[in-house]
Write a structure and sequence with these properties.
6-stranded mixed sheet; 3 domains; Maf protein; alpha/beta; globular; homodimer; Alpha-Beta Plaits; Molybdenum Cofactor Biosythetic Enzyme, Chain A; disordered C terminus; 5-stranded antiparallel sheet
Chain lengths: 442, 442
Amino acid sequence: MRAEVLTIGDELLRGEIVDSNKSFLSDRLLRIDVETRFHSSVRDDPADMTDAFRRAATRADVVLVSGGLGPTRDDLTIAVLAETFDRKLELHEPSLRTIEAFFERFGRKMAETNAKQAWFPEGAEVLPNPVGTAPGCLLEAEGTLFFCMPGVPRELFRMMDEEVVPRIAARVRPVGGTVVRSTILKTFGIGESTLEEELSDLAREEGLSLGFRTTFPDNYLRPVARGATEAEAEARLATLCAALQERLGSLVYGVGAEVTLEAVVIAALTAAGRSVATAESCTGGMIGARLTSVPGSSAAYVGGVVAYANQAKIDHLGVDPGLLETHGAVSEPVALAMARGARERFGTDFGVSTTGISGPDGGSAEKPVGLVWVGFAHEGGSAAQDFVFPFDRERHRALTTQVALDWIRRHLAGEPRVAARYLEARPAGVGGPPGSDAGGKT
Amino acid sequence: MRAEVLTIGDELLRGEIVDSNKSFLSDRLLRIDVETRFHSSVRDDPADMTDAFRRAATRADVVLVSGGLGPTRDDLTIAVLAETFDRKLELHEPSLRTIEAFFERFGRKMAETNAKQAWFPEGAEVLPNPVGTAPGCLLEAEGTLFFCMPGVPRELFRMMDEEVVPRIAARVRPVGGTVVRSTILKTFGIGESTLEEELSDLAREEGLSLGFRTTFPDNYLRPVARGATEAEAEARLATLCAALQERLGSLVYGVGAEVTLEAVVIAALTAAGRSVATAESCTGGMIGARLTSVPGSSAAYVGGVVAYANQAKIDHLGVDPGLLETHGAVSEPVALAMARGARERFGTDFGVSTTGISGPDGGSAEKPVGLVWVGFAHEGGSAAQDFVFPFDRERHRALTTQVALDWIRRHLAGEPRVAARYLEARPAGVGGPPGSDAGGKT
């Protein structure tokens, strides 16, 4: 079965947005052993859309179309698809009622243009959209299956998983072929090429493979296993995953595409009955924002201080003004005092702090842009670790946040406070050697 | 001039990576008035690549090819391009020496396979790659210009800007034709379909158009104007933008693809010499994180408290425990007390607060999931406004953050504290009517 993913929208061709729908859709197809042969995008232009539909019909068995289902004038997917394959448009009454109900639920009247979203090509099967107003549809034309889905990622993701994948899988399976199973291992603290070198011997067997992908600041591993049956593919995948986890140890923080480091941290804190407070300078609230993105995080996270200005560090975390004067805000003593202050003032088991120079300005010869101190306080003492992350402001802050979250996870797991490999990026002469928390400054 | 962007690589079709090269390349083309008509991707498969090259030659004047220039066996772009258009491969001696020098610089010996990167189709112009081993090339075939570039983003970006754009621009300009200018107007507080209805009369003239795009929680407008000269296109765009801004007023918070609400807020605060502190419950640090993402934000933002637990609201913002007991954390008096507490305790001109039920759990009949109070304190008093945002946790928090940031902007501009239209989403019976800050609770 050959698949094509076709996304539609002027904004794509103008380069206004990065099209992440294509990779999502191809990934989902791969999980049911359907190979994507072509990715295409065209503007909201009827002639180009018609060409794209015609060509897709000649070269693909299944075409996933995303975008152009909205209520506005430039949303043309359904109308052009119908015309391309000589189908009339028919009103789908249940969809019209669903769209009306959707607006009613929010106390609004449906705009006239929204009614357009209830018209489909004759012979099409309508696919429900539980999280938006645009239903999708499946049209079979010239032997090819066209699945039309919304372009809004969260609507697309759900429709793909709940409506489209089962319909494709039902047609793939009877034909036979191997079953594919894969997952994602999320790692933090090791580089992609190091990963590839260290793991290259583990997926050499026929039917096993290992993909690598950097999603800053993490690196993801994708083990893939094939088998004659689902059970066989799953067993081979489990064996491969176990070997990878044994090799990588605590560098793997989670398994599965959906897992996040913040969710792992909240779960570990909750399981241990421990709590944490944050003291953020350069990250400005990012650690708190990540932790509170997890439903139920109030069991383990009580809050913290965003201490961006020095006076806020003094007033709200009890940092001694003398430390700031002597060592500067970006220093080990201040990171330690911030972490301790958060822990004491919020009455938590742990306190975590960040203070750094995320750039683009503010560096000096002694303290370059990119320097950051992360602090951690617990019942047995406190420690701080410095890094120089040579990245732009956004990535500097994201990486610092990840280090802070990972420190909580590592502390709870009894691991060294940082993975030695993050330190590969650190120029010689800045900061001390990596060490375990036991060896930290108390 | 019609352009196509063609990216090559198995990893794209397997959905392992999100292809951000396409949006980069199309954006760069747009800046020199070249419209991208097609995006395509194919696997590292000679037959599919040949088809893609042939088709591109029939429908595009310029084709930007990215990927497949590396040293490995599956890097086939140059060889297949040459074969498709019946060209021999020729060794380009200067490139071979550059590649050898590149390896020497890092103290490594050039691998045999890297020599492959110095072979190009006869008649091609070689494009240097100052940051990698794979040079690019320009081949003109069947009247179409094929620019081959590496897939590694930083190598691609540089080659595009330094080698490719000037060559295309040189060919575009002398030919004449219309010049296109466009920009983006970012709006918050009005729905996409309402926008389209209200603005549909403004871009009816030949050569003007208006696009709409939702980037939650904002809606973006893209006015486009054509003219015979740059001056004419720019003047027409300016006229259209002025008409849009007049119609929309304070719903437009910024102009240009790069502008962010947080940058607008920091700039407005800095210009006015005012400062703000945050008191975040349900947003957990997101407002602080957004504000501190702006370089130079320390001029206007001093910090705040993430008061996720009730005790944190009492201890660190001075919220009266009686208020929490009587009204609950998600209430007008608590939102007001949090905003005032932040302002007073951090010694700032303004304080902004959030307290809400972002879900998925925690709601009740009286206080449903989605309810949120946003508070704002200033020298003249304080006010709070409630909303019910019927979205998932992530979007609830993002929208609440946006409302809080927008309130600062609106206050500084002397505008009503919220755009009346956000309230379209609020079910009847929850909260009071929208009003200006002057009428707020003090």
